[in-house]
Design goal:
It is built from 4 helices and 7 strands, in the order ααααβββββββ. The protein is of the alpha+beta class. It folds into 2 domains: about 90 residues; about 100 residues, Immunoglobulins (Immunoglobulin-like, Sandwich), CATH 2.60.40.10. A hairpin with a 2-residue loop joins β1 and β2. α1 runs antiparallel to α2 and α2 runs antiparallel to α3. The longest helix has 25 residues. It is globular.
Length: about 230
């Protein structure tokens, strides 16, 4: 009997495309499939570490040997954890339809990334000054009322913001904000600097599709957080 092919791709680009589609599907169906967040979150943390390293090594002119070593180390840890997750939560999970298991395993030579539609919603934002000139940002999808979370069609959260002294009027348009930040995680920090203590940070946020920006979601209305020294 011929040995079945490994479901894990070999080439870096194929691994990147597969992991994106795989965990988008798992995140979308985790409740129906009985997969707890405690099982998924370590993989999403590794994904958040892995994807920026993958993009960094694509720049062959500017990447360093250390960049490549960091990527290879992260990829090894990510794939090991991914295989363990698949074995424990997917292979013998009777709640996952066979058709979905086939999609998750995929085809070895299917290298095309899964098309993603336009994001129709904006994130629910919480801003909190935590001292040291830093503001903590927490984002969640509209349907998630208890914990920070990423939209399954988004690569990141995009933010445009501005510091406004007390008594001055904030802008109503994100394009009027000179500062920007993008995060691959739904919880992140904006380093404002203690020099801006006492001022308010006004920010606009959206779910971002970094591959196809026109499919990014709409901007939120302005959110406010006070910078604390």
């Amino acid at each position: 009997m011929a040995k079945s092919k490994d479901w894990m791709p070999k080439q870096d680009d194929d691994i990147f495309n597969k992991q994106k589609a795989y965990f988008e599907r798992v995140e979308t169906n985790k409740t129906a499939w009985g997969i707890p967040d405690t099982a998924i979150d370590p993989l999403l943390d590794l994904q958040a570490e892995y994807e920026p390293l993958y993009w960094k090594i694509q720049d062959k002119k500017n990447r360093t040997g250390a960049d490549v070593a960091s990527y290879r180390d992260c990829k090894k840890r990510y794939i090991k954890a991914w295989r363990a997750f698949h074995k424990e939560w997917v292979v013998n999970n009777s709640k996952i339809p066979v058709a979905d298991k086939v999609i998750l395993v995929g085809k070895e030579r299917d290298t095309e990334p899964t098309p993603r539609g336009k994001i129709a919603t904006f994130p629910i934002i919480g801003l909190k000054g935590i001292g040291g000139g830093e503001i903590e940002v927490r984002c969640r999808v509209t349907t998630d009322q208890t914990r920070f979370s990423m939209h399954t069609l988004a690569d990141a959260v995009e933010c445009k913001y501005i510091f406004v002294p007390t008594g001055e009027m904030p802008p109503e348009d994100p394009d009027a904000c000179p500062k920007t930040q993008t995060s691959k995680k739904a919880r992140f920090i904006i380093s404002c600097g203690v020099k801006n203590a006492g001022q308010s940070l006004y920010g606009f946020f959206r779910w971002a599709n970094l591959t196809n920006p026109q499919n990014s979601g709409p901007w939120t209305t302005k959110a406010q957080g006070v910078v604390i020294a």
